[in-house]
Structures
1.
Amino acid sequence: MANKLPRFDRLINPLLRALEALGGSGAVDEIYEKVIELEKLPEDVLAQLHDQDKSNQTEVGYRLAWARTYLKKYGLLENSTRGVWSLTAKATFGDGDRGEGGVGGGEGAGQLGMAFRGAGGRRGVLLDGDVGAGVMSLPAPLPLNPI
């Protein structure tokens, strides 16, 4: 049985962790490779193309693009240079600092599931259906692309 493709919203946390592991920014290909490494995605999942008639982009790559788009709309990512994505000040926290608008404080707190540093210093965003302590849910003010 083939492994199931992760939905784009389930790639948000791995994307944030990948960018953190890359030092806060990275090219699309670097981010893709780091997410694969962190999530240990199997070859049969990675081999699936999004639209083989139009491009050679994988379905995972397509869904990571949606995850980046949502994180940009929520102010957690920026791409000031084509193909390079960076964590913003909202998503970059110092040791123990929750950042502006982050979980538990600042203007804008409660508007979206902010990046956080949880147990072990891991950064993430809690989405509906996930479980975790001290993390906010990410609302869906934008229509979700049914992937």
Note: The chain has one domain: 8-124.
2.
Amino acid sequence: MARLEAIETELRRARNRLAKAEITPLPTPVMDSLHNSVRFLNAQQARLEQTLHDHIDRHPRRQQDRQLLASIPAVGPKTAWRMRAALDMAVVVATQHNPAIQCLYQRLVARGKSKMSALRAALAFAPQLPWRAQTSNPLSATIRLKTLDR
């Protein structure tokens, strides 16, 4: 994800340089170089996006998370990817500070699950929190936690 964002930033810069060069004419080799840079970065962006899509398509749970996050109004695919990546990192902190995730994590560890297994369960639960916060989902976090606890 970080590499894709870096490519997108470079692509914006290259397009801005090209737009500026079209206003202030530059020698042909320089213009060719700018066009080549934009083509190369477009190809890299497409390749990385395809790799990311393929990765998500191979993991049904990640597909569900992406669809769930993208169902939030004003959240598109890129924002859903970023939210998922942020949730991956934040779930470790959430086991200490989020009551719903902390409860799930502690119950699983108390039942003899490994900490990594409990963390994975919390990670599976985390993407649902923003969706639940913006909908009137009748299922409470407690009910969902009990189903994950099995």
Note: The radius of gyration is 21 Å.
3.
Amino acid sequence: MEQYSAAGDQLSLAQLYGIMRLRAAVFSGEQGIDPLLDFDDADLLESTKHFWIENDGLIVSNMRLAGVSPTRVKLGRVATLPEYRKQGLASQLIQAAISSSMASEFYMHAESQLAEWYSGFGFEVVGDEFEEVGLPHVAMILQS
């Protein structure tokens, strides 16, 4: 398996397709989220950086950092195909993203069921639970 990263405006069509295919499988197929809610302008921006892992050309895990400001980024769209889970792939991508960024603050809207897992990277819950895309979430912040 190989790890890659690219700014949103540098993704090839095949890379973008692979990322969106993975996210559709996980977010829409597994979680029942409306697929249109996944599409936003951030994916193709120069200030967004995508991280992914491929196995024989198939993107099996991915995430992105969306630049909010030079010092603040939003971590999100973390997804791994079911058959590749429990191998540390998402952890590998999150660690790569945090270590490669110049941001001093990372924030996210994490699914509530994953808050404890994200706390292992140093993220802390801020505020109360809320609903996003039909699922319970919490805001989390990591100061680096």
Note: The helical segments are 13-30, 89-100, 115-119.
